[in-house]
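Q: Convert this sequence to structure tokens.
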Amino acid sequence: MAAATTTVLEAKAREGSGKGSARKTRAAGQIPAVVYGRHLEKPLSISVDPKAVKAAVQTNKRLNTIISLKLGSGSHMVLLKDYQQDPVTRELLHADFIDVKENEQVKVKVPLQLVGRAEGQAEGGILTQMRRELEVWALPAAIPEKIDVDVTSLKISHSLHVNDLKLPAGITIKSQVNYTLAVVTAPEAEVVATPVAAAAAPGAEGAAAAGAAPAAGAKAGDAKAGDAKAGDAKAAAPAAKADAKKK
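A:
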């Protein structure tokens, strides 16, 4: 487990609220921010230097970096819980900090890293990581940079679940669902093209064509016979009319 990482961030109390107050704060080179927590009587409205905020979390723990927020004559142990950025310039516009206590666990998200080569991969299986991070509860000083999980024993069709983890001391997961973290699946079966029946029996195509020719000729003959009958009928029509007039 990595040692606790703490950085210092200067802050100033901020008066007023709303868009007008936020614009004035940003015009002065600061951004509006809020500190909240169940130990505070009410959220604290503050202003901080956006560049200093970015620098404070430029550690291996990123957002899980413990920050000593200096406010007036006092200080607060906080974590950067959320922030807003300009969609174009990516500059910070607002920040939210959560007040934490040294002896109380806090909920954070920690990266999950798979370690080793799964046994099933050696057999052609495919290892898939289902979760990239874990939501854990930990004391501020015990928050790890990441959680390593050994997958070398996973065989094909085997999976690793959250209940299978052996977590570092001081870290717990509060979940009622035993969700999947990684799985090794069997490789897809290779599709082999089979030869068509005509190709398997040489000359079959020619025989079929030869057999079809007489039938085609017969159909043509039938059509000609039909045409002849139609011609006889047309020729007989005037004679029938002539007989009718004589009568």
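Residues 107-185 form a domain with the RNA Polymerase Alpha Subunit; Chain A, domain 2 fold (CATH 2.170.120.20).
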